[in-house]
């Protein structure tokens, strides 16, 4: 009699810099995992080859013979089409209309499912993380960019064309800074790590922000959200003001989501949230000021529970259809 | 053998100024309807008595004996609790914690269902109006205030505490005008009929806006969104600018909803939308500029199809459970 569980699935979190792959049993327990550089520069075929290699690697790590894996599920930057598994366009990957699902299915000869990376991180937090057992949950990741995923009625909500949850592109300041999407004043353009670093660089260009510059080794190009956060926690008022501003707009974005969706929980993840109290304080303040009655008193605004594993765990959950 | 259909239901749209009541058969055909003043000034018991009287009236109008009506469904201003049928608070009705469902059930001795008025207008448009057959639809009414209702996955989405769809209170201008809710720059504070009239009055206070003032018979207190719209359609540039500004922010609000929910359709109703092209143009422009890829090309932004009957028809649909 075998002691092996009867199901094994693979979850893959495909990012612009790293491929994170995990093998899990039918209960979602991770038996093996690996992270490798994506090497996007070498093109889609190379990246897909690397995904397949990581899958082989975790299979061998777990001591499973080939053919034992039932489903492979991949979270990818989008926009993408879930049914066809085509990645329409991804600046991070440098991809344009790549039939990821088809190519992986040909290479792996197993069932492949594709979803948006932020959606799968939301699903990961819902199934294994901060949002376990919650009916209506919105996940927001504040990192280089700002993304999100919606769990409504206990399930991932994709919208009409798999494009729901673009929280990073809701307008929070109509005449604000230009955003990569072509609009102005998107949440991403004021609250992302990129926006925080940009504001600091702008100060330095005016001969201000010397404390921040020093922390970046005197090189404006090395200023990042982390540099600004460090300066802020060291008491630098210019840095504090940049962080508060980003936090304020993030709070406005969160408040908008609460007023629209009346969720049970908002889960905030991503590197910018790790700045800690200065960000959380701004968020709480705006949520308090800008949301209504029972929606405000009911909602929990909490930190993500899975850190960088949210995406891969969400991919596992999708493969196991745990939403 | 009777030719009567086997089911009759009553839908009630309870507003701050009017009670609109309709009797429908099992297919949602309206057999009788009536509109009476709410007379909120006389208190909740009086208003509930009037609702019951309108129900008797449409029953008699339709020639139905007492006891033939299966379900009464009421759309009420909120916030409210659907399960208990308690209206927590309504400035329009002057109500505070009124157990509407219980009181109506006692008076009518029939099944009573309560929902938010904007939710039922959304349901009305979805079942009988512009949004028939649409899977994900957002209804927005721009009138004295701004309200909304969400149809997600073909059904009304209520959120965690029946507070979803508060589109009027998403922030579109962080340091904008104060809103009735206590925050600043809510969509309602810049795009509602009330906001349009307020901006015109502000001009008049500065000695400007004379064309608008003339159309209000020289009395600033009589300036309404209609006065401003008339002046705008007569070519008055100050009025045009007020309307464009309201339209711009409405467009930003609509774009935010599209980015977040990726709906198939946005249905816009309410008096302000009747201003016509100057409002629609601003909305289209911002949606075009501020939404992403497939979400933008897929979504239809259309006028409501049922006018002032959306609420009562939604109440009928709820009573027939047609969502």
From TrEMBL, chains A, B:
Coiled coil: none annotated. Pfam families: ROK. InterPro entries: ATPase_NBD, ROK, ROK_cs. It comes from the Bacteria. Belongs to the ROK (NagC/XylR) family. This is ROK family protein. It comes from Pelotomaculum isophthalicicum JI.
């Amino acid at each position: 009699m075998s002691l092996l569980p009867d199901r094994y699935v693979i979850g893959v979190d495909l990012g612009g810099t790293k491929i994170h792959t995990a093998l899990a049993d039918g209960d979602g327990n991770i038996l093996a995992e690996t992270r490798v550089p994506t090497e996007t520069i070498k093109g889609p075929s190379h990246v897909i080859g690397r995904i397949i290699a990581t899958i082989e690697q975790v299979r061998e790590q777990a001591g499973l013979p080939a053919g034992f894996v039932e489903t492979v599920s991949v979270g990818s930057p989008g926009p993408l089409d879930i049914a066809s598994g085509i990645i329409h366009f991804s600046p991070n990957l440098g991809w344009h209309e790549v039939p990821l699902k088809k190519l992986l299915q040909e290479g792996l000869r197993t069932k492949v499912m594709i979803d948006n990376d932020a959606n799968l991180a939301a699903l990961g937090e819902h199934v294994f993380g901060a949002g376990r057992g919650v009916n209506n949950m919105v996940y927001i990741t504040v990192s280089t960019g700002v993304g999100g995923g919606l769990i409504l009625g206990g399930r991932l909500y994709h919208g009409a064309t798999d494009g729901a949850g673009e929280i990073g592109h809701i307008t929070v300041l109509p005449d604000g800074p230009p955003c990569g999407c072509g609009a102005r004043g998107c949440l991403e353009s004021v609250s992302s790590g990129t926006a925080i670093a940009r504001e600091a660089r702008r100060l330095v260009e005016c001969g201000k922000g010397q404390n921040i510059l020093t922390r970046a080794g005197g090189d404006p190009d090395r200023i990042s959200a982390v540099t600004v956060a460090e300066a802020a926690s060291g008491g630098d008022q210019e840095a504090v003001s940049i962080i508060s501003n980003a936090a304020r707009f993030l709070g406005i974005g969160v408040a908008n989501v609460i007023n629209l969706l009346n969720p049970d929980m908002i889960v905030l993840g991503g590197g910018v949230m790790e700045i800690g109290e200065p960000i959380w304080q701004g968020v709480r303040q705006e949520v308090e000021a800008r949301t209504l009655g029972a929606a405000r008193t009911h909602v929990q605004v909490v930190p993500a529970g899975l850190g960088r594993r949210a995406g891969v765990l969400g991919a596992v959950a999708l493969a196991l259809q745990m939403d």
